[in-house]
Write a structure and sequence with these properties.
Blueprint lengths: L3 H6 L4 H8 L4 H15 L10
Helix pairs in contact: 2-3
Length: about 50
């Protein structure tokens, strides 16, 4: 799985990500990316279990 936030950090236009995700409205993309960012804190790496 890739992280869409990394694309934004590397300068990809949010409209490009909007098209990639199939969103009709850029606000939906912005909400989606914000939710993904919030959920990243809850994801544990398998290496954390070692």
């Amino acid at each position: 799985m890739f992280n869409l936030k990394h694309y934004l950090e590397n300068g990809t236009n949010i409209r490009t990500l909007q098209d990639f995700l199939g969103h009709a409205c850029v606000e939906t993309t912005m909400i989606y990316l914000h939710v993904m960012e919030d959920q990243q804190d809850q994801i544990l790496s398998p290496l954390d279990a070692l």
